[in-house]
């Protein structure tokens, strides 16, 4: 299931429902995120997002990484 990791700009306060509705208007239904997580994204020294850290955090406590 798609999940969105969102870093907000200063002064912005959208809810997860606002973001999901925004995506549903512009994307195919199966591409829309089912859940939203707000916070800073871990980045490398070159500025790329460390996707493996996001996956590790999300799959913590599961024996297999298949849903």
TrEMBL record:
Entries under PANTHER family matching the protein: ACYL-ACTIVATING ENZYME, BUTANOATE--COA LIGASE AAE1-RELATED
Gene Ontology biological-process annotations: fatty acid metabolic process
InterPro entries recorded: AMP-bd_C (IPR025110), AMP-bd_C_sf (IPR045851)
Family: Belongs to the ATP-dependent AMP-binding enzyme family.
Keyword set, alphabetical order: Fatty acid metabolism, Ligase, Lipid metabolism
Superkingdom field: Bacteria
Pfam families linked: AMP-binding_C (PF13193)
Domain AMP-binding enzyme C-terminal: 1-48
Protein name: AMP-binding enzyme C-terminal domain-containing protein
One annotated GO molecular function: ligase activity
SUPFAM superfamilies: Acetyl-CoA synthetase-like
Source lineage: Bacteria, Pseudomonadati, Nitrospinota/Tectimicrobiota group, Candidatus Tectimicrobiota, Candidatus Entotheonellia
Origin species: Candidatus Entotheonella gemina
């Amino acid at each position: 299931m798609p999940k969105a990791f969102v870093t907000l700009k200063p002064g912005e306060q959208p809810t997860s429902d606002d973001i999901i509705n925004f995506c549903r208007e512009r994307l195919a239904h199966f591409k829309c995120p089912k859940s939203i997580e707000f916070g800073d994204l871990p980045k490398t020294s070159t500025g790329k997002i460390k996707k493996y850290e996001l996956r590790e955090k999300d799959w913590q406590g599961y024996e297999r990484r298949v849903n």
